Backbone:
């Protein structure tokens, strides 16, 4: 008889997104993303971090004053996953697994590349105006929004 306690596909891909989030150097918010196709193959991964080639010891990691604010520099996990897709691969019809619901800017990128579903672990900024705009755009574009309901294999996300 086969094992009965194996993880399902959603748990597998969200586990990869959680693992990817551990690459982030952001001291306050670590976000990971995993994009999977309709054959349940991983297409791309991402985490929130500084753009390639920029020394992340020179850029601030906090909400500072003027240009010393991390939000001007950090690439979000979803955008990194989209940009990290191997050359020639299509994201049309893929599912995005992400540890934090996408902002409006990442929602635009998801729509543009044809992501069909977003499975998210946390939606802690649900009521912020940019998140409301994000949900509105995604719904208008027909992107399915699915809160993650499976087992989480990382105790940090079970708190």
Residues:
């Amino acid at each position: 008889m086969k094992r009965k306690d194996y993880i399902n596909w959603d748990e597998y891909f969200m586990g990869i997104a959680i693992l990817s989030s551990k690459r982030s150097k952001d001291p306050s918010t670590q976000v990971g993303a995993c994009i999977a196709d309709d054959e349940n193959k991983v297409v791309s991964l991402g985490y929130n971090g500084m753009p390639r080639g920029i020394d992340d010891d020179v850029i601030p990691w906090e909400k500072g004053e003027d240009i010393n604010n991390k939000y001007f520099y950090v690439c979000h996990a979803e955008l990194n996953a989209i940009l990290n897709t191997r050359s020639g691969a299509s994201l049309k019809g893929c599912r995005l697994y992400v540890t934090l619901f996408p902002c409006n800017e990442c929602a635009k990128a998801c729509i543009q590349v044809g992501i069909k579903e977003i499975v998210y672990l946390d939606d802690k900024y649900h009521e912020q105006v940019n998140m409301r705009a994000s949900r509105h755009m995604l719904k208008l574009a027909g992107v399915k929004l699915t809160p993650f309901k499976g087992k989480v294999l990382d105790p940090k996300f079970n708190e």
